[in-house]
Amino acid sequence: MSDLIYQSQKPDPSLSGFVESSWMLDNPSENKEVILLPDGRIDLLFSQSLKEPFHIVLLGIGTHPEQVVIAEKTKIFAVSFNLIAAEYILHQSISDLLNNAKILPSDFWNFTIDDLNDFEKFCEKISVKIKEELSTQKIDERKLKLFDLIYSLKGSLTVKELSEKVIWSERQINRYFNQQFGISLKSYLGILRFRASFQHIKDGKLFPEENFSDQSHFIKEIKKLSGFLPKELSQNQNDRFIQFSVLPKK
Known about the structure:
With 250 residues, this protein is α+β, with helices and mostly antiparallel strands.
C-alpha cells in the first residue's frame, strides 16, 4: 500500500452536514489487495483503470469487512456522504445497496473521464453540483438534528436518547432507517463507534474509548465489523485495513 497516492478534502462548510469529504486514490503500480472496513458512509466513486473504462459507482453502507483488489493503474475520485445525503442529494433510498453497489449512468451529474485529471477542479465541480441538488430541497429539521447528533458524538448516544433529543419516536426513526438505508439505527450507531475505535486501535489503544459497555463487548463488536480482534487490527501492516472515507494523506 505504500505506493498508493491518496488525498482528501473537507467540503465547503455549508455542506458539512451532508458530505464527509471528497477524496482521490491513485494506484500507479500493480494490483493491491486490501480489506475494506465499514465506516458508515455512502461513497460515490468516479474511476478508471487499465482494464476498466470510466465508470461511476454508488456504494451503500457496509456492515462487514470486504476483501477488495485495487487494480493496477486505477484512479478514483470520490465523495463520501453522510446518510442524510441519500434523500436530499441523491434523491433515492439506498436500502437495496446495503453491502452492495450499483453502476450509475456514465454521464451522471455530467461528469466525464476528463474530470479525473485535476482533483481540485473535481472538488469544485462536485461542490457546485451538490449545492444545486440541495437548493430545491426543504430539509426536515428533525433529520438534520438527528444526524448532527449521530456524527458529532460518533454514535455514542442510544436510540432512546436520540429519540428524546430530536422529539421523534424510536419506532418512526427505525422505520425511516430501515426503509431509507436498509439498516436499524442501533446497528448504524455500532458502525460509527467502530469507525471511531479504529482510529484509536491504529494508535495502539486496545481498550474501548467509545460507548461500549465493557471490554468484552468492545472486542465482540470490533470482531463482528472487522473480522479481526483489536490486537490484530493494530498490526496494520502496509495499511492492509482501510476505510475509504478516512484514508490517511500521503
